[in-house]
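Re: the 299-residue chain
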Amino acid sequence: MALTLAESAKLATDMVLAGVMETIIKEEHVLDQLPFIEVVGNNFVFNRLNTEPSIAFFAVGDTWTESTPDFTQLSVQLKILGGDADVDNFIQASRANVQDIEAAVIQQKAKALARKWADTFINGDTSVDTKAFDGIDKTCAGLPASQTVSMGTNGGTLTLAKLDELIDAVKTKNIALVISRRSRRTLQSLVRTSGAVLESRPGNFLEWVQMYNGVPVFINDYISDAKTVGTSSDCSTIYCFSLGEADQGVVGLSAPGGIQVQPVGELESKDATRHRVKWYSAIAVLSTLSLARLTGVRP
């Protein structure tokens, strides 16, 4: 069964690990809601539906025809994300009454991990970095053409009609939008002009998540506002996708144990203690109809 990181954090008995998971979730909105599947082994293998079986009406005495769904078997490999952090023993000993230096260093490392994951979630491309995983932009580019909605040959200013078209391109349930801050400002302006306001609901850590027609709007700072579409070089992309395995949507993948904080120990070359923050992780898009993008969004 898939669990969100927020739920997993409640099960962590290590206070340092629980604090790291909370820091990571707070740093990246998608990680607050995205369900994760625990993967035993290196690869997650799944069947993606290509065509549904056909159904028809028959008369008495008709010959019935057989029809079965058509699947493509895909696999996603877990990738290693992480880094080492050294804590100077003298500073930790002499300044612990002011601030726990060890906790502060590990927390900053956790934030860096969350930001790298957020960047890869959007822009990951294994043809550029074989050590990373493919993000939703590259994945969407390989889906049917119906899953990419365009603002025009040279892009165009966002409209609510186009945003609704993007949402309608995702046929599965439990959906969310991921946009840049610039696109959110445009969306807020459009909604105000229509005489309404974006709704809000509290997240797991009392932060406010904005909603568009009941769809949560997540911010990702790694969505570029400077993409080139036709003759325009100031374009952005908005993504819409389903969250979770039950809706054949986008899921996170993680090795057993999830995010890990490993004490490496005392260093020989300097008076410091090393900690390793690591996560064996990836994402999978289970259905071709669970992800879509709107390209060419101009300011």
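Residues 27 and 114 are 6 Å apart (CA to CA).
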